[in-house]
Amino acid sequence: MDKKIPNIVIISSSIRIKRASHRVALYFKQFLEDGDAASVSLLDLDHYNFPLFTERLSRTENPDKNILDFAAKVKAADGVIIVTPEYNGGYPASLKNVVDLLYNEWKRKPIAISTVSSGPFGGMNVITSIQYSLWKIGAWTVPALFPVVKVEESFDAKGLPSDKAGTDKRAKRFVDELFWCIEANRRMAS
User: Fold this and answer.
1) Residue 65 located in a structural domain
2) How far is Cα 65 from Cα 50, in angstroms, rounded to an integer?
3) What is the pTM (predicted TM-score) of this model?
4) β-sheet bridge partners, residue 42
5) Most buried of 8, 53, 76, 145 (most Cβ within 10 A)?
6) Residues β-bridged to residue 116
7) CB-based contacts of 11: which residues, under 8 Å, 6+ apart?
8) Residue 1, domain member (yes or no)
9) CATH code at 176?
């Protein structure tokens, strides 16, 4: 069995002022780093400040360095964790923008999805739309989910969970499923 630790990219997709889903992205970064389970990069779409794209990256003339950096990090990742809030039953335009920007970078990439809401349903309405978009471009969405209900009560601004033991247990199952898919993907590619 390959003992190489996976390279994981966490995409924090909200760019909204006072966003709360970023707390979950911070949690996953810390969770993976504390356990030395993976090398981790947090790609915060709020920091990238991408414009609306008019064409896929592969067809874009003279793309910005920020775009190329983002694409290279996604391409190099063994797996991706997307943390997305639910906005009116869907996911944020900032996330749709980068999903549509890339193509080959997503191909057969194991992607685990954490949905987040301030309400009692944990953003579960968003899962169908984001999975469908990712399937259409050939990504491999991991069957395990990590919904977060009442995010402001569940995580503080630094990403610390109010129920650390329970959250870590759920996160381990979620991340283990992603790791299983990464290992399966490696074996299929060799």
Assistant:
1) yes
2) 11
3) 0.95
4) 10
5) 8
6) 85, 148
7) 25, 43, 45, 80, 81, 82, 83, 95, 98
8) no
9) 3.40.50.360
CA–CA distance from 12 to each of 22, 24, 60 (Å)?
A: 6, 8, 24
DSSP, collapsed to helix, strand or coil, labels residue 72 as: helix
How far is residue 122's CA from residue 40's CA, in Å, rounded to a whole number? 24
What total number of domains does the chain contain?
A: 1
Q: Using alpha carbons, list the distances in angstroms from residue 68 to 40, 83, 139, 152, 170.
A: 18, 21, 19, 33, 34
Collapsing DSSP to helix, strand or coil, 64 comes out as coil
Residue 95 resides in a domain = yes
Residue 124 is given by DSSP the state G
pLDDT tens-digit readout, 18-72:
999 999 999 999 999 998 889 999 999 999 988 888 888 889 888 889 999 999 9
Q: What are phi and psi of 61, to 5 degrees?
A: -85, 135
Chain-centroid distance, C-alpha 28: 10
Where residue 1 falls among pLDDT bands split at 50, 70, 90? very low
**Does a structural domain hold residue 117?**
yes
Structural domain harbouring 94? 7-189
Q: Dihedral angle at the C-alpha atoms of 20, 18, 79, 55, nearest 10 degrees?
A: 140
Alpha helices in the chain (DSSP H): 22-34, 45-48, 65-76, 93-101, 127-136, 151-154, 164-189
For 135-174, what is each residue's pLDDT tens digit? 999 999 999 999 999 999 999 999 999 999 999 999 999 9
